[in-house]
């Protein structure tokens, strides 16, 4: 979320009123004494509506504690779904993944959560998603698919890459992703134009170039 929701600001105001007009620093101290983790800088920026990203779950729980409301109420005020009672556990085969594969899956999960909360994707979000896809592809090329368990991981990774492709295809039609570079859609851009766009920080041409290279490799070109 680019701006703090009004209802979350209200909860911080409620918390301040509960403690006699306490400052952000005082509220942070009270939260920490109650076993919660939030800084006064985070509280102040949230209260001013200048916090650039979605607050962490720990910050939302701290605000719930300070305002004396349920955590579900605080998560709803932040515009996100409260975590489930049972935490997500990856399949046992995930223990065989290397660090690069784990990081790619982490980025994919974050992308799914951002999409589920209706957050507007930023260039940084999209770049991370493209990077995650590239890491998955690189990791797949280094595994031994002859092992049954590894084969299951490969299939799951390929499904994840397809999901990333679909997500990027959807995002390419939104204002978050520029549809063209100098008036040209990605499929009409030259290699030089793709490189120029990628150097400017635009993730979409970089993604197109990656997929184009994959098609060349598959076709034997």
What does the secondary structure layout of this molecule look like, with pairings?
Layout: H1 6-18, H2 24-33, H3 40-48, H4 57-67, H5 71-77, H6 99-116, H7 123-140, H8 148-171, H9 191-199, H10 203-219
Helix pairs in contact: 1-3, 1-4, 2-3, 2-4, 4-5, 6-7, 7-8, 7-10, 9-10
Protein name: Immunity repressor
Organism: Mycolicibacterium chlorophenolicum
Characterise the protein shown here.
Helix 7 (123-140) packs parallel to helix 10. Helices cover 62% and strands 0% of the residues. The two termini are 43 Å apart. It folds into two domains: 6-77, 434 Repressor (Amino-terminal Domain) (Orthogonal Bundle), CATH 1.10.260; 95-219, no CATH class. With 221 residues, it is mostly helical. The radius of gyration is 22 Å and the shape is elongated. The longest helix is centred in the last third of the chain and has 24 residues, at 148-171. The chain is built from ten helices and no strands. The chain has helices at 6-18, 24-33, 40-48, 57-67, 71-77, 99-116, 123-140, 148-171, 191-199, 203-219.
The major sheet is characterized as:
none
Shape: elongated
Strand fraction: under 5%
Q: Which structural class should the secondary elements be placed in?
A: mainly alpha
Give the tally of structural domains.
2
N-to-C SSE series?
Answer: HHHHHHHHHH
Give the mean pLDDT. 72
First-last Cα distance: 43 Å
Protein name: Immunity repressor
Organism: Mycolicibacterium chlorophenolicum
